Amino acid sequence: MKTLAERLKYAMEVLPPKKIKGVELARAVGVKPPSVSDWLSGKSKTMEGENLLRAAKHLSVNPVWLATGSGEIKLEKKSALGTDLDINQQEMIPVKTWDSSTPLDEDEVEIPFFKDFSFACGSGAIGEALLNEKRKLRMSKATLRNKAIDKKNAVATTSSGDSMSPTIKDGDTIHIDLGRKTVKDGKIFAVCHGGLFLAKRLYNLPMGGIRIVSDNTTEYPEIHLTAQEIKDQQFEIVGWIWQISTMENW
């Protein structure tokens, strides 16, 4: 089983006494069902660390095997008391510490990380901001390659507000592809609108118009702009938001 999709299907359909449905796994991992569908179809070839551990725990398989195909499929180690260990105790995956002086791995790149990207909106200074930003995030070249994202177009920033809740929460890290600015209906984009930096779902309207939609529709009604209003209100698409990293608060 060379791919994540093959291993995941095996763990869901062959190993358990009863087949595990995608909806059940999505609920256990804490993601939406389309994410599981992407893993099973091979559209997403990797899982983020926390998602991987939760999926492995729910499926009672070795997270290293699920991620790479290496090692035992199921963990059957015993503690000194003869009881089964929790899956997180059984397989400890080492985490490397690093700082700005740590050399990049062969499969790593650094991308600009903005704690506040809003200052670049409305001033035509996004390119200048990219050149001047010193904070960086590290990520795998393979991740960008799988999404066909050019490294020079990859940036990340911290989200603010609750207009896209529950999809994007206040303080989440959003990853933006500056090279994708053509509206694909329903996708989430980073935009500048009247000098404000926002994350919104976009839809095309006739005659060059745009429909701007928040996931929190109760507090943030959708907006329709004509082609002329797009110009008048300084509406600009910064890029496609392709990844959202959520950190839970205690």
TrEMBL record:
Classification via Pfam families: Peptidase_S24
Xref: CDD domains: HTH_XRE (cd00093), S24_LexA-like (cd06529)
Domain HTH cro/C1-type: 24-66
Record has Aminoacyl-tRNA synthetase as a keyword: no
UniProt GO molecular function: DNA binding
Keyword Transmembrane helix attributed: no
Entries under InterPro entries matching the protein: Cro/C1-type_HTH, Lambda_DNA-bd_dom_sf, LexA-like, LexA/Signal_pep-like_sf, Peptidase_S24_S26A/B/C
Keywords: DNA-binding, Transcription, Transcription regulation
SMART domains according to UniProt: HTH_XRE (SM00530)
Superkingdom, natural source: Bacteria
Cited Gene3D superfamilies: lambda repressor-like DNA-binding domains, Umud Fragment, subunit A
Coiled-coil annotated residue ranges, if any: none
Entries under PANTHER family matching the protein: HTH-TYPE TRANSCRIPTIONAL REGULATOR PRTR, PTHR40661
Name assigned to this protein: HTH cro/C1-type domain-containing protein
Upper taxonomic lineage: Bacteria, Pseudomonadati, Pseudomonadota, Gammaproteobacteria, Moraxellales
